[in-house]
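1st attempt posting a full record on here, be nice pls
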Amino acid sequence: MKIAVLAFLLLNTNPDLDRQFERDVLIAIASEPACHRLDVYLAVTNAQRRQGLMFVRRLPETSGMLFLYDRPQWLSIWMKNTLLPLDVAFVGANGEIINIVRNAEPQSERSMVAEELAQFVLELNAGAAERLGLDENSRLLVDDLIALRRGAN
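the predicted structure (as tokens):
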């Protein structure tokens, strides 16, 4: 049993990201009645948000990166120096997914934009949003993360 747990932990971590970002658990409620547990790296500071997943070669299947902002705003991102194709979900302050850019092209400098004011951006491996049933009718449980963020300020 200990070997299985150790193997799970090793497969679901990335040492480079572990050194630079805190991690937390994010629950995603898909539009089809299902909940999914995601292990997310938190990009909270400006420096972390600028770095994001640039130069990362492997992202565990059940992991992603959640970009947190202090308030809802017009958000856009690009894939410059990002080596992995990603699904990018723009998320409102209430946790509702606003729009998802699926299978974003690695290293592209094309801007991907939230269709409404957003407070979070969730990046997952390409295809993960479809596999998990995430769409514009899905929601992320972000309340604890917002409280954590307010406590840090």
